[in-house]
């Protein structure tokens, strides 16, 4: 259904439809505009099941582009992983490739909890191969389960969303120098699969996190805290290194924009620094 550009209005209609028994997908042209409807997403969708003592489920999916874009400046180029991952009651997924996107969208629609599903508009034109399994109509990716995209033995590199591709590219470069990286595609922000990260740290003894969002209270900060509080902390041979977006509103100039988001070179530097190679 086409709607007027009134995010609070159409998000509220969609939340009400979910409460009435439908399974709507509410699309924001960009998640920057979801701030206009934040009360509907958080106060109505995320909290109603709890506040109704389980009597009123809200099976809705809020979908749309998230993260840094190109040439749209501060108000239209930011990552909302920390914003929505912070709120109990929401399931928040952050797919990287086509397989993630298909499987996680179907899982989000079928889930009885309200969910946030993100896409990256810079990747809309990038093709990915789909396995035969992924092309099945019954294919879903379980929410809350990370995926090891590249096994490794020396250092764990964790990312979500578009930076996963940068991590794989950096790992390929580092492999030529004899550095073996394990790349984990987080896929889900809430609930977060800490167990997969912990198991990897036990093997590699080092951790680097990569994200496009701001550093303070970010996804990497949460991973660091959870690792510090759990058994994997004792297996770390060096401090965790975080690679994040710059701690400022996104500039408009292309050269400044590129320096405000994680690049392959930044990941390579972080890995070598964590391994005390520089």
The major β-sheet equals:
5 strands, mixed
Shape descriptor reads globular
Count the domains.
Answer: 2
Write down how many β-strands occur, each being a DSSP E stretch of 2 or more residues: 10
Name the beta content range. Answer: 5-15%
Would you tell me which CATH topology of the largest domain applies?
Answer: Rossmann fold
CATH architecture of the largest domain: 3-Layer(aba) Sandwich
Structural class: alpha/beta
Order of helices and strands: HEHHEHEHEEEHEEHEHEHH
The CATH class of the largest domain turns out to be: Alpha Beta
Order of strands, main sheet, comes to 1-2-4-3-8
Oligomer: single chain
| Unreliable runs | none
Cα gyration radius (Å): 19 Å
- Summed over residues and divided by their number, the pLDDT gives a mean of 96
> Count the helices. How many?
10
